[in-house]
Amino acid sequence: MGAFKKIIIVLIAVLAFLSKVQAQQDPQYSQYMFNQLALNPAYAGSKEALSTTVLLRNQWTGIEGAPKTETFSIHAPLKKKKVGLGFTVIADQIGPVKSIGALGSYAYRIPVGNGKLSFGLRAGIYNYTYNWSDITYKDQNDIYNTGNITSRIVPTADAGIYYYTNSLYAGLSATHLYNGRLTSVSNLNGDDAQLSPHLFFTLGKSWQLSDKLTFAPSLLIKAAKGAPTEVDLNACFLLKDRLWLGASFRTGYGVVALVEFQITDKLKLGYSYDMGLNKIGVAGRGSHEIMIGYDFNIFKSRMMSPRYL
Fold first, then answer.
1. Which helix (H) or strand (E) holds 281?
2. Quick one: DSSP state of residue 181?
3. Residue-range domains of the chain with CATH
4. Strand locations in 27-96 (E)
5. pLDDT tens figures, 123-170
C-alpha cells in the first residue's frame, strides 16, 4: 500500500501543476468508469480479456447542433500478459464540425504491490470535416465564409499511467501532446485553432459491504487549455454482482444518473442521463448515453470480477 500511496501523491501533484494550463475538445463521457480506454492508453489489457465497448452519446437534446459522440474500443493483453494493445475509434459531431479518430494504444505493465502499474502510449489520426455553409456569419467577409466543405487530417499522440488491483484503480493521462492545426483555412492573425492537451485523472475503489452489495465510488478530474477544470464525483452500488446503480455530481454543470446491467459474465449494458443545472444544461434538456460491452475470454483464464471497474 505504501507504493500505491506514493503513486497517488505523484499523480495528484502532476495534475495540479498541469491543470493550470489554459476549450475542451475531447468528448464528454458520463460512464467513464466503464470506458476508460477512451481516456487513458495505459488501460489497454487491464481486463485480462479481449474487451470491447461501444458507447453512444447524445448531449443536450434540446439544442440543435449539440454534440453527438460514437466510440468503439477494443483491447487485450498479449499472451505473456506484460503488454496490452488497444484500438479506439471516436466519431464526434458538434454543429458544422465532424471528426473521426483512429487511435492505437500500447501499454506495458509491471507488478507493484497487490496490483499492476501500466505505462501507456497512443498514436493516431483525426479527420476533421467542416461544413462552412452551416454557419451564420455576422461578418460576410469572414475568412471562414467560403461556403465549402473542407477537411483536414491531424495526427495526435497521448500518454498515460494506470495502477490497478481487483478493487482499486488510479490513472493519469494526457491527450493531444502534438498541437496539430485543425483547419485548412489559414487565419492571418496567427491564432488558428489547434488540438490542445487534455488531462484526465481517474480514481476508484470498491468495498464489498455484503454478499449481495458492493459500494464503488470513483472520481474523474478533467483539465484542458482554455476550459475550467471539471470534476465528476460518482457513487455506484453493485447489487448481486449484476446490477449497477449510481449517481454523479459534475462541478459547474449538474448531476448524472446511471444504471448498468451485467447480463452475463461477459455482456453488459449501461445507460446514463445527465441533467444540467446551469443555463446550458437547462436549455439542453438533458443528455443520454448508452454503453454496450462484451469481453471474450480468449486465454480461458479467470477474468476480472465485475466488482472491478
1. helix 279-284
2. B
3. 2-296 (2.40.160.40)
4. 50-58, 68-77, 83-94
5. 999 998 887 776 666 666 666 656 677 788 899 999 999 999 988 999
